[in-house]
Amino acid sequence: MAKRVTIGEVAADAGVSAATVSRVLNGGAVTEETASRVWAAVSRLDYTPNALTRSVFAGRSSTIGVVMRDLSSPFFLDLIRGIDDVAAANGSLVMFANTFRQRDHETALIQMMDEHRVRGLIVTTGDQTDARIRRMAEGGTPCVVVARRFVDPPAGLHTIRLDDAAAGALMAGHLAGRGRTSIGVVTSGDRPAQRERVAGLRRGLAEHGLALPGEAEASAETEREAERAVVALLDGARGRGMPLDAIVCTTGRLTVAVHTALTGRGLTIPDDIAFLTTDDFPWAAALGLTVITQPSYEMGRRAAELVVDNPGGSADVVFEPDLVPRGSTDRGGRPGSR
Description:
Keywords: DNA-binding, Repressor, Transcription, Transcription regulation
Strand content: 15-25%
Strand order of the largest sheet: 2-1-3-4-5-11
InterPro entries: HTH_LacI, Lambda_DNA-bd_dom_sf, Peripla_BP/Lac1_sug-bd_dom, Peripla_BP_I
Radius of gyration: 26 Å
Organism: Parafrankia irregularis
Number of strands: 12
CATH architecture of the largest domain: 3-Layer(aba) Sandwich
Order of helices and strands: HHHHEHEHEHEEHEHEHEHEHEHEE
Distance between the termini: 71 Å
GO molecular function: DNA-binding transcription factor activity; transcription cis-regulatory region binding
CATH superfamily of the largest domain: Response regulator
Number of helices: 13
Structural class: alpha/beta
Low-confidence stretches: 333-338
Helix content: 40-55%
Oligomer: single chain
Number of domains: 3
Protein name: LacI family transcriptional regulator
Largest sheet: 6 strands, parallel
């Protein structure tokens, strides 16, 4: 195996010090004649700079740190692709970490990104990580929080999010337009985005003279919990004499679990009950699922651009949702009959 050429060998070949070679490689001030000698030596020896060494001299690496909460959501795949495309175009690698929704793990991973002096940080974590993110931004590392607001962000800390209230209103208008009058909703945890989607749904239904009572809302973190939530919503509504004719899921990662729970009860979609969910994915079209979409690829690109450009102040970029109508919300013949 060929021995890797060292910076010392480049310095010896060019007749300069190793520190001078580092200055040239990192764009530092040297004479044109010295720079030419160094670059000629780099070419002759086929020298590949050590990225870690370069980051030591620069005080920061060229890597963009990305900490995602849960890859089981289809939203994150295109988000990561958008981040990676911008990073690659700007000479950066992406250091990616998935926290599997473990809160302590989220904090530890962000600390690790800080210790590696990443060029910038993009996260979808919960608010327990806010103190560490704030310190990073205040220390000069551009940070981007995706999918939620950040309270009183300092300069260099940006947010990318969906207009979640508008997403809920889209759901309400679509279901009311399809003649659905008794709606249940499955949410995921107590994240602000989830609360805002439900609030938008509730306000939108009210504009059509329809109610979304508290007992028609259920929260779930896991697929098993989602299945239990669906059963509880169906049985509870029937017990109140108001069988559900539509179920809304406000998070893409629980789509399959909610759909499975409905069909597992012997319900036919959309004849017995309509189903509307969040985030598109390849099988959604095959299953005929009506979905609320968010432009996750564009959101990822914008997040990475904020890291690369690092504009002054604190940007809050809000994207608009869209609704893709498919057969799962068509007007059925026997809503709530089972």
